[in-house]
Design goal:
The complex is a heterodimer of chains A (293) and B (332). Chain A has ten helices and 14 strands. Chain A is of the alpha/beta class and 293 residues long. Chain A has two domains: 211 residues, P-loop containing nucleotide triphosphate hydrolases (Rossmann fold, 3-Layer(aba) Sandwich), CATH 3.40.50; 58 residues. In chain A, strand 9 and strand 10 form a beta hairpin. Chain B has two domains: 232 residues, no CATH class; 81 residues, no CATH class. Classes of the chains: A alpha/beta (293), B alpha/beta (332). At the A-B interface, helix 2 and helix 3 of A face helix 1 and helix 7 of B.
Chain lengths: 293, 332
């Protein structure tokens, strides 16, 4: 175990942001921390990063409290970070390189994070994607054993998001431990070996994404436009119906039976969509609200 | 303490400052414009009001009664006759009256002295003359303008910048590295001090070439005052920046400190003759000591023996404020 967390709490005036959670992070995995806004995930991550002091509980890195060793071996990519102004990308990298006793060669880092085209540019003149790549490079500058990525792709266009995922996969390939918080279920599913879902300061589920889904869903989801179903329609026994905006979702126990049932009621299947449940569905079921709301 | 980390941060801070053209312009061009502006506006070196130093008790003095009730003359009680004569010599006092000694002094080259003498006519005092070269207002004001510039640069360049760093996440990013608060603060202090010494020297040379002014003392001593004064002002900035998280609040507080400091530290006018309470208050401001010491060196050619109280005060301010600032500093 690279990180062990025990009975961790954080109180703000009148609010328990993190409420006595315990978990461990095995070496070399990518752990996704998910939760709606205000669930306590950023507070948790900032305590793990050594930025916030816990109200109570312990955090051990390689069996010892967070200290100089941790700061030398951890890489952190914050969600909101300004950099000193009027300095170029190359100068920022050189600055951060001086802070650490052991660092990764700059050329290697520039290659991994694809910084080549804008090395001499003022940090204020970077696009969203370029900026995130620079922040990722800073997080990797000390060749860290554990990397924290706090919502690394929030606000990025789909192309930049996929590029960043590619870079994160390369880091994973180097057997580093990753802790990722994200708003995007797809991102968690793509990148994480394990996920940990938080709500109201507590951990409400933990596991391998595929296994978590299998555990909660034995079924598929059928989606139809709401007006395709007659008023008072009831699905086949064992399945359930839930409205989703202008669509209706049938949580089907067995797809064939559900479809036969629909046909029997002469419902048009023109716009029928059959899909497997996603983490988004699981999340909705566990927390009662959508991740991005 | 790692010299590596300190030097890297010092370099980055210097680059950030030197490449910010607006801040740089503000720090160098503004004081030059002010000094040159004053040189033209107060070219004669005279101010409207007549200033007369009065030594001794004036009550029931029938001979002087008419003169002492003249309007538009400021009568200033004098303790030390020697100091007062020097002031007449430099045109800082237009006349000095020694009531028990039945004497008065004027500067033979001063027009105001001549007019005051005519007003005094008939009081049968004995005339004494001095003939020192006048100190123009610009000679007197230049240490004040340079000191004020250093004050603004230190308070905002350290105080405001650190609060901005805290607000926009630069501090958070730095705190997640092995960098210590001590290394960070030291880099900020040293960077600003280097910049202050550099641009004050530039402004000093520039204005001296443009208008020329009085400098009777040691340049090394003046540099010492500059460094200690700069340090004490930076330490005030540090104190403000230790905890604050709002740029707006920091800006307000910095203005709340800098404006009274500018008005009460004798940048623009001498506090002589002002309310004793104001004079006491002025002593609590580092800028007062810095300007007093710089003026004493430049105008009077004062040596370390004369300005040690100011040097001690500046050192004291620096040590105390930096200590409190560093103790209370928070990254978040």
């Amino acid at each position: 175990m690279i990180i062990e967390v025990k009975d961790l709490t954080k109180h703000y005036a009148g609010l328990k942001a993190v409420d006595g959670i315990s978990f461990t992070i095995p070496r070399g995995i990518c752990l996704g921390l998910l939760g709606p806004n205000g669930a306590g995930k950023t507070t948790t991550v900032e305590m793990l990063e050594g930025i916030l002091r816990p109200s109570s509980g312990t955090i051990l890195y390689k069996g010892a409290p967070l200290g100089a060793e941790f700061r030398n071996e951890a890489g952190i990519m914050f969600q909101h970070t300004a950099l000193q102004e009027h300095i170029t990308v190359r100068e920022v990298l050189k600055l951060f390189q001086q802070f650490y006793p052991h660092t990764r060669p700059l050329d290697e880092l520039i290659g991994i994070c694809a910084l080549g085209e804008f090395l001499e540019r003022d940090t204020r003149k970077l696009s969203g994607g370029q900026r995130q790549r620079l922040l990722l490079a800073i997080a990797l500058i000390n060749n860290p054993e554990i990397v924290f990525l706090d919502e690394p792709t929030t606000g990025l266009d789909p192309q930049s998001r996929r590029n960043l995922w590619e870079q994160v996969r390369r880091i994973k390939g180097e057997n580093k431990t990753l802790v990722l918080t994200t708003h995007y279920m797809e991102e968690a599913y793509e990148l994480c070996d394990e996920i940990l879902i938080m709500d109201h300061g507590k951990i409400i589920a933990r596991g391998v994404p595929r296994e978590l889904l299998a555990e909660h869903y034995k079924n598929s989801i059928l989606t139809l436009p709401a007006d395709a179903l007659p008023a008072g329609f009831k699905p086949d026994p064992g399945s359930s119906l839930q409205p989703q905006g202008d669509r209706m979702e049938i949580l089907s126990k067995e797809v064939n039976t559900s479809i036969e049932h629909l046909l029997k009621h002469q419902i048009s299947l023109t716009h029928l969509l059959v899909r497997s449940p996603t983490l988004e569905d699981l999340f909705l079921e566990l927390t009662g609200h959508s991740l991005r709301s | 303490m790692s010299p590596h980390r300190f030097l890297a941060l010092l370099k980055a801070r210097n680059q950030e400052f030197l490449r910010d053209r607006t801040a740089l312009g503000w720090n160098i061009i503004m004081p030059v414009l002010i000094v040159v502006g004053f040189a033209f506006a107060f070219g004669s070196g005279e101010q409207d009001l007549y200033k007369v130093g009065v030594q001794g008790d004036t009550a029931d003095n029938s001979r002087l009664e008419t003169f002492l009730t003249t309007r538009h003359i400021q009568f200033i009680p004098i303790e030390s006759q020697t100091d007062a004569i020097t002031k007449v010599d430099r045109h800082q006092l237009d006349m000095l009256i020694d009531v028990p000694g039945n004497r008065y002094w004027i500067n033979s080259s001063s027009a105001k002295g001549y007019i005051l003498e005519r007003l005094l006519d008939g009081s049968e005092l004995q005339k004494e003359s001095v003939s020192g070269k006048e100190i123009r207002y610009v000679d007197w004001v230049i240490p004040g303008v340079l000191g004020m510039n250093i004050m603004f640069s230190s308070l905002f360049g350290v105080g405001y910048v650190i609060v901005r760093y805290r607000k926009n996440g630069v501090l958070k990013r730095l705190s997640a590295t092995p960098l210590t608060a001590f290394e960070f603060l030291l880099a900020q202090i040293v960077s600003r001090l280097l910049m202050i010494v550099a641009f004050t020297t530039l402004v000093y040379i520039g204005t001296d070439l443009l208008i020329g002014f009085r400098m009777y003392g040691s340049y090394w001593l003046l540099l010492t005052v500059l460094i200690l004064g700069g340090l004490s002002m930076i330490s005030v900035g540090l104190l403000i920046a230790a905890r604050m998280t709002s740029e707006e609040a920091a800006n307000g507080l910095l203005n709340l400190i800098s404006w009274p400091m500018m008005l009460l530290s004798g940048v623009w006018f001498s506090l002589e003759g002002s309310h004793p309470l104001v004079q006491q208050l002025a002593l609590a401001l580092p800028l007062t000591h810095m300007i007093d010491a710089a003026r004493a060196i430049m105008i009077d050619g004062a040596g370390p023996a004369e300005i040690w109280p100011q040097l001690t005060a500046l050192t004291g301010f620096s040590v105390i404020f930096i200590w409190i600032g560093a103790k209370t500093f928070r990254w978040e």
